[in-house]
Structures are given as structure tokens and as C-alpha cells.
């Protein structure tokens, strides 16, 4: 399976501003589940300099820097990705390590520390759900990951939420509904509570092929001994295979934001527009 997409993002300012260096996290990841093909990134105004870098989470990020004033920032990414993982369960967990919390080696524990730390937001409802699932028999990593998908599908609805930011797990539970990014964070909080490393992923999903308007999608990845990082999508209630394209993953959702940077000056009103065109082939 291959995916071709174009992602256009534009910021318009009422008055010219000076753009500080920006990080653009819209380059598809290359990993065991997907391979990056042809890639083109156009930035306007043309940066004084640009370079692809690898961040602390292993994501490929475009770093750009500017001079002079501008009234806009326009980024267009065109990419083709080969999606390789048809079976999301093509791994074997050593029975001795198939318990909760996950028994990690000292090296694994150091690497996974940031993906096990409690999230800096109220998350008691996610912890309660996690404890209830364990009491009900979901006491292995894979059983817990799947049971959590089912429990969230039963309790939480998925909606489009235009306002920025992420709802805390407690706020999401109280509302009973949230955006994909909110559900991903709830899933992360529950997994971390039982000792499964979890991180936030931004990217794309196949969605409805008949729809022209698209948006970025979000889900969670958990680390399993013998399986490595594996995606679980609580918005869709499934394990991730070859219908998702991962762009960035990080312990903190802010570190997977598609565009990160600041500016100097008073922009008046700043407006954001984006358009995504995606095709599976």
C-alpha cells in the first residue's frame, strides 16, 4: 500500500512580522512500518537557510530560518509513503515479560522514562479505567491495550473540536466526547499508569476516500518487548497497520506539533488555514 498526499499550511498576519527559526514536523517517518519515497517541501517566504534534522524522538524535522519582514508563512509538503505493515500483531512477546507493569531492563527504563512519566494534567479518570480493566482480567500488555480501546469506544465519542489545545483525561471523560488528539492523550495516560511506555503520534489516516477535506489525525503508540513501538488508535478502536501515515511521535503532544516557532512584532490578527489531499494507492 502506498499513500500520496499534499499538505498545505498558511499563516496570514495583518501586519508584517519577523519570523524566528521554525521547525516543520510534516516529514513522514521512516521506520519498520513505513518507508519514505519522494518528498518536496516548499516554504514561502524563501528561508535564508533550511536543513533536515533528527530530533530527540527520532523524527525527521525541517528547520528553517529567515531574515526580513513578512506578512505570511506558507508551507506545502508533497510526499509519497510506502506502508509496509499489513498485520499489526506480527510480533511475539516473551511470556516472562508479558505482565504489568512491563519489566524493563535498566537501559530500556532509561530510554522509556519520558514515556512512562505521568502527564502534567488531571488524569484520574484514565487511571480509574486502567485499574478497572486490570481487575477485569486485562493483565498482559496486549490484552490491556485492546481492552482499553474497547472501553474507550464504549464510553467516549469522537467529535471534531476546532478550539486549540488538548483536553485533560478528566475533562474528556466529563464531556464524554473529544477530538482524536484528546483520546490519544487519554490512552497514553491509562497505559503509563499500568507501566506501559506510551507516546503521542500525529499523522494521517485513510479516512473516507470520498471526502476531499482532510485533517491531521492523532493516535498513540505503546512500546512492547518483542514488538517495539506499536500504534493503537482509540478514535477508531483499532491497532494501527497500513492505513495510517505517522509523521511525528513524542512523549509530549506539543513536541509533535506540525509547525513550531515564534515571531517578533505585532501581527494584529493571525489567521491559520490548511488543506490536505490524500490518496491511497
What does this entry look like structurally?
The structure is a single chain. Helix 2 (124-135) packs across helix 5 (180-193). The N and C termini lie close together (6 Å). This protein is globular. It has 5 helices and 16 strands. It folds into 2 domains: 2-84 and 257-280, Immunoglobulin-like (Sandwich), CATH 2.60.40; 95-241, C8orf32 fold. By secondary structure, the chain is α+β, with helices and mostly antiparallel strands. Helices cover 20% and strands 39% of the residues. It holds the Pfam family Transglut_core. InterPro entries: Bac_transglu_N (IPR013589), Papain-like_cys_pep_sf (IPR038765), Transglutaminase-like (IPR002931). This is Transglutaminase domain protein.
Give the structure's gist in a few sentences.
The protein has 281 residues and is of the alpha+beta class. 20% of the residues lie in helices and 39% in strands.
Amino acid at each position: 500500500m502506498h499513500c500520496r498526499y499534499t499538505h498545505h499550511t498558511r499563516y496570514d498576519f495583518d501586519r508584517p512580522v519577523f519570523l524566528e527559526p521554525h521547525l516543520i514536523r510534516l516529514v513522514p517517518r521512516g521506520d519498520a512500518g513505513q518507508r519514505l519515497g519522494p518528498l518536496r517541501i516548499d516554504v514561502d517566504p524563501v528561508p535564508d537557510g533550511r536543513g533536515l534534522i533528527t530530533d530527540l524522538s527520532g523524527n525527521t524535522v525541517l528547520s528553517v530560518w529567515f531574515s526580513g519582514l513578512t506578512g505570511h508563512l506558507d508551507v506545502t509538503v508533497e510526499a509519497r509513503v510506502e506502508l509496509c505493515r499489513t498485520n499489526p500483531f506480527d510480533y511475539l512477546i516473551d511470556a516472562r515479560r508479558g505482565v504489568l507493569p512491563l519489566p524493563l531492563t535498566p537501559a530500556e527504563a532509561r530510554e522509556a522514562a519520558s514515556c512512562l512519566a505521568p502527564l502534567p494534567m488531571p488524569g484520574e479518570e484514565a487511571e480509574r479505567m486502567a485499574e478497572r480493566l486490570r481487575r477485569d482480567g486485562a493483565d498482559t500488555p496486549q490484552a490491556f491495550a485492546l481492552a482499553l480501546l474497547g472501553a474507550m469506544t464504549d464510553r467516549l465519542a469522537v467529535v471534531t473540536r476546532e478550539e486549540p489545545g488538548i483536553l485533560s483525561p478528566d475533562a474528556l471523560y466529563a464531556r464524554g466526547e473529544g477530538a482524536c488528539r484528546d483520546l490519544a492523550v487519554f490512552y497514553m495516560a491509562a497505559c503509563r499508569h499500568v507501566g506501559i511506555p506510551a507516546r503521542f503520534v500525529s499523522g494521517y489516516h485513510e479516512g473516507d476516500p470520498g471526502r476531499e477535506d482532510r485533517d491531521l489525525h492523532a493516535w498513540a503508540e505503546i512500546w512492547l518487548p518483542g514488538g517495539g513501538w506499536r500504534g493503537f488508535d482509540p478514535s477508531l478502536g483499532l491497532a494501527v497497520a497500513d492505513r495510517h501515515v505517522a509523521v511525528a511521535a513524542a512523549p509530549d503532544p506539543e513536541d509533535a506539533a506540525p509547525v513550531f516557532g515564534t515571531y517578533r512584532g505585532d501581527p494584529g490578527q493571525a489567521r491559520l488555514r490548511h488543506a490536505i489531499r490524500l490518496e491511497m494507492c
